[in-house]
Inverse folding.
């Protein structure tokens, strides 16, 4: 099938649409949550008020000229300056919002608020939830399964861990409790198992998405990869900045290790992961690319080389999927292989569906007959692989 290079980018300018609501309702709610969580001084509160106004009805403006990344954002903003946030690509507008938020709270400026994760209270609350103990015990049991079942169980946990991130829960509190569909809308797990067969070694890049409930199963997956010789080395890619509310940073990784270690059942898993970090079989990376408005078609050379050197890159979550396939109105039957052709090396996507973009699902129209929520509410997932 020929890929239509002209598939239009997803925008947010249809009032009432999903993307419009993210900009118009979710972003202001995120600002309110951040403002309520910290005793910020007047100048930060004023900056947050201004951002709330801009997020609802503003136009794209340059970042402050003294921002450390002003030159990059000047380049990325050039096509959109002066345009409504709703008329620029949705992917771009969201990234711009989170960058502006960090600016508003003084994340990069010298002073007492520098480097403070605005989403830390929610992340901490999620990890402190005693209900998580049952999940940890379940993750710990994966290592006791027969070897051929371990990968299936770990991939399943890592996939569905993506279902209810903290940003989604803000506007959809039910997302956490809704049962997920037992079928996947695309399932290339046979190819995944082949690439990750025991004893095949090599490097796997695991591009993580959210902290807490998602990163914990991702760590169980790392353990399965290393323990069964499915990989000699895993690079775990995290965000360099707090972004998209629950995106996992290095600090979140440490918090997850701590949580695993504190529970009797999962303490051995924490021990194995710490050992792997200590001897270099597990390496952490925080490429700046993950906090830009760019797609994987615009990968910087260094990161592309890392992916090329790996036998497989596993990309987690909805946002990475949008960066990977391009956040466009593709016909859903467009082959995954076609839109990921330019990716350097083999790539697998583990994603629950929380936004409109979708490829590699020829029966999407039939599913749409029952309404389109399945594309948005995290109940459906996919495993797609391109070798
Ligand atoms: O955490 P994930 O799986 O990347 O999902 C985040 C998703 O939430 C949104 O920000 C809003 O729904 C999407 O645009 C984004 O793709």
């Amino acid at each position: 099938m020929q890929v239509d290079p002209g598939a239009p980018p997803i925008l947010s300018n249809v009032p009432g649409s999903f993307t419009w609501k993210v900009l118009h309702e979710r972003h202001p709610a995120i600002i309110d949550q951040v403002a309520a969580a910290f005793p910020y001084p007047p100048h930060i509160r004023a900056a947050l008020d201004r951002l709330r106004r801009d997020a609802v009805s503003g136009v794209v403006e340059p970042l402050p000229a003294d921002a450390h990344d002003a030159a990059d954002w000047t380049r990325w903003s050039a096509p959109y300056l002066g345009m409504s946030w709703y008329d620029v690509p949705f992917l771009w507008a969201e990234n711009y919002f989170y960058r502006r938020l960090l600016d508003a709270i003084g994340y990069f400026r010298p002073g007492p608020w520098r480097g403070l994760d605005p989403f830390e209270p929610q992340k901490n609350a999620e990890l402190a939830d005693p209900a998580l103990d049952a999940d940890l015990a379940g993750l710990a049991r994966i290592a006791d399964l027969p070897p051929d079942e371990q990968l299936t169980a770990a991939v399943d946990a890592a996939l569905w861990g993506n279902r209810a991130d903290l940003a989604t829960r803000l506007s959809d509190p039910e997302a956490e409790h809704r049962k997920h569909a037992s079928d996947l809308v695309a399932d290339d797990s046979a190819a995944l198992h082949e690439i990750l067969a025991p004893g095949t070694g090599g490097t796997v890049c695991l591009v993580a998405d959210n902290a807490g409930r998602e990163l914990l199963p991702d760590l169980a997956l790392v353990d399965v990869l290393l323990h069964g010789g499915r990989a000699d080395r895993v690079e775990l890619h995290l965000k360099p900045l707090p972004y998209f509310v629950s995106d996992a940073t290095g600090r979140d990784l440490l918090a997850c290790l701590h949580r695993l270690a504190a529970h009797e059942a999962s303490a051995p898993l924490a021990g194995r992961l710490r050992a792997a970090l200590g001897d270099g079989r597990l390496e952490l990376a925080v490429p700046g690319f993950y906090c830009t408005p760019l797609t994987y078609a615009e990968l910087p050379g260094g990161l592309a080389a890392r992916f090329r050197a790996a036998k497989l890159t596993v990309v987690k979550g909805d946002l990475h999927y949008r960066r990977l396939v391009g956040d466009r109105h593709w016909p859903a039957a467009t082959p995954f292989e076609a839109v990921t052709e330019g990716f350097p090396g083999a790539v697998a996507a583990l994603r629950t569906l929380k936004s409109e973009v979708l490829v590699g699902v020829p029966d999407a129209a039939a599913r749409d007959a029952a309404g389109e929520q399945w594309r948005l509410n995290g109940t459906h997932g996919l495993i797609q692989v391109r070798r």
Summary: The chain is about 45% helix and 10% strand. The CA atoms of residues 146 and 240 lie 36 Å apart. Strands lie at 184-187, 203-207, 233-237, 282-285, 312-316, 347-352, 381-386.
